[in-house]
Amino acid sequence: MSTASLGSTGRKVTLPAGAAGLPGHITVRQNALNTVARAVSAETLGVNPGQVTVTLRDDHGLLALEVTTPISMPDLDTVGPDYAGPTLLQRLSDAQLAIRTMTTRITGNQVGRVDIRVRGAHIAGERRIPR
Known about the structure:
This protein is of the alpha+beta class. The protein has 3 helices and 5 strands. It has one domain: 2-Layer Sandwich (Alpha-Beta Plaits). Strands 3-4-5 form a 3-stranded mixed β-sheet. Helix 1 packs antiparallel against helix 3. The radius of gyration is 18 Å and the shape is elongated. The N and C termini lie far apart (53 Å). The N terminus is likely disordered.
């Protein structure tokens, strides 16, 4: 499997297909990488992809992601005083690893760094069925 990093122009990445034994080139546009990273980040953090922004950059030959997003939080009225879930920092640390792993697996580009900026909380309340 061949890997690539963001081109110096920041617009597209061209990979030699010779690594796969086929002549030619494979071109992956930055927009496609951004869409995948945004979808993976949104799913990992439990929010709508429209609420997530991702900036891609080159980090010494690896792909670096800057993710700005709200994070899904439980409604404190529904969890009770004995709630013992993970801390916010633990959830973000786990999310960094998951976003790095999934984006690398889906795109074939080695993600080296994921920076997450939380800009709010999405309170995940119970869904009620209308009567």
